[in-house]
Amino acid sequence: MDFSSEFKEWLYDEISDALDDYKGVFVYGCDLAYKLFEGPNANGSVTCSYYDSKEFIRKYWDDSVEIFEEWKFNTGENLNPFEDPEHFHLLMLLEGSNDILSQSSFVNEHWDKEFEITDATIVMIKDDLGINTGLSSEEIQIIWEEYSKDPDVATLIAGKFLSSELNSSKYDKSTSLESEMKDAREISAEIAEGNLDTPMQTMRR
Q1: In 10 A of CB 178, how many CB atoms?
Q2: N or C: which end of the chain has fewer CB within 10 A?
Q3: What are the tens digits of pLDDT across the range 124-164?
Q4: Distance between alpha carbon 80 and the CA centroid of its chain, in Å?
Q5: Who contacts 202 (Cβ-Cβ below 8 Å, separation ≥6)?
Q6: Which residues does 98 contact at the CB level (< 8 Å), separation at least 6?
Q7: 189/145 Cα distance (integer angstroms)
């Protein structure tokens, strides 16, 4: 769908916050948007305010028309945005987020594959969508490369980057950084053998 830059920014902010809130959850790519916003979906409203939702639709009118037309094309249902503005506002969040997330190469690669929402997968999805991760391009590249080899290693490395325990620009990749990765791989091997919890299981304790 062809959204305005302002509406995209709103969606990016909502997606970014929700990804951080859902660390440790397993999900399929095709269900990601609906998992991230299952709370508003269960409530039937994003704002719990008829007035706020109505004003939101007015503010992003062109985007609401985009979603209205797409929804009608896919379902045949002819919605009136102002008949139930809270429901339509929710539809804008769910369908808009689903459209945005489908543009992520990582999400597409895992469309019908289950994955865990971790520091690593969050960084990769945000990187795909152009959302600021707070990491350098080199650090992000390392996470992508490590994830393709071992997701647990990538998660441990991403956590260190995000917490500033590790900074690739200040470390000699041939010594300190490689040492960190070696330690992470050893921990990952212990996890695989069932001797340790996964990084996200440890965090949930």
Answers
A1: 12
A2: C
A3: 999 999 999 999 999 999 999 999 998 988 998 899 899 88
A4: 30
A5: 196
A6: 32, 33, 34
A7: 18
